[in-house]
Design a protein that fits this description.
This protein has 7 helices and 6 strands. By secondary structure, it is α/β, with parallel strands linked by helices. The chain folds into 2 domains: 159 residues, Ribosomal Protein L4, Chain: A; 41 residues, no CATH class. The chain has a 6-stranded mixed beta sheet with strand order 2-1-3-6-4-5. Strand 1 and strand 2 form a beta hairpin. The longest helix is centred in the middle third of the chain and has 17 residues. The relative contact order is 0.17. The mean pLDDT is 91.
């Protein structure tokens, strides 16, 4: 699959790049995408939720009424879960939600997500650029020039660029990531994938290296 390279003014540069069919042209595997996104979301969970059980509630342990003759159920403590202010029954406890996922499944999921984007024509190849200083306005101008001002977009950089990252940090519909850190969730969460020209080679290197592991 061939794509035209455009510059930050939204104009064609006259160059074309060929996307690797082994990365951008495979038959997508939906189940691997589901597993990879599930792991990504699970890893973001803090898991610090906690409710107090009856042993942790502050209160008297005095027997609040006599055992028999009241006509109601027996009760031994005000901390019982059946009373207001008592302990919680089977409440949440701190836990780790992360789980293991095989490397080959994760690689297949990323390739599947990239293939979906290629089929939907949701990939733009942008000429490499940089900013002299962080300016959000310049990033907005680039989005307007690329005609993606109203679309959620993901910019894929070959290496970390602090000025580009800071320029996009205040924009809710713009995310920036390096080619080595690209993940399934962010690919699918963006309407348009803006890949810098130098990132294509990095993406190919990352996938080929991990395929041989």
């Amino acid at each position: 699959m061939e794509l035209k390279v455009i510059n930050i003014q939204g104009q064609e540069t006259g160059r074309k790049v060929t996307l690797d069919d082994q990365i951008f042209g495979i038959e997508p595997n939906d189940h691997s995408i589901y597993l990879d996104v599930k792991q990504y979301m699970a890893n973001k969970r803090q898991g610090t939720h906690k409710s107090k059980e009856r042993a942790e509630i502050k209160g008297s342990t005095r027997k609040i009424k006599k055992q028999k003759g009241t006509g109601t159920a027996r009760a031994g403590s005000i901390k019982s879960p059946i009373f207001r202010g008592g302990g919680t029954i089977f409440g949440p406890r701190p836990r780790n939600y992360s789980f293991k996922l095989n490397k080959k499944v994760k690689q297949l999921a990323r390739k599947s997500a990239l293939s979906y984007k290629a089929k939907e024509e949701g990939i733009l190849v942008l000429e490499d650029f940089s900013f002299e200083s962080p300016k959000t306005r310049e990033m907005l101008v680039i989005k307007d020039n690329l005609k993606i001002a109203d679309k959620k977009s993901l910019f894929v950089l070959p290496v970390e660029n602090k000025n580009i990252y800071l320029s996009s940090r205040n924009l809710q519909d713009v995310s920036v990531i390096t080619a080595s850190d690209i993940n399934t969730y962010q690919i699918l969460n963006a309407k348009t994938l803006v890949i810098l020209e130098g990132s294509l080679k990095k993406i190919e290197e990352v996938f080929k290296i991990k395929d041989t592991e």
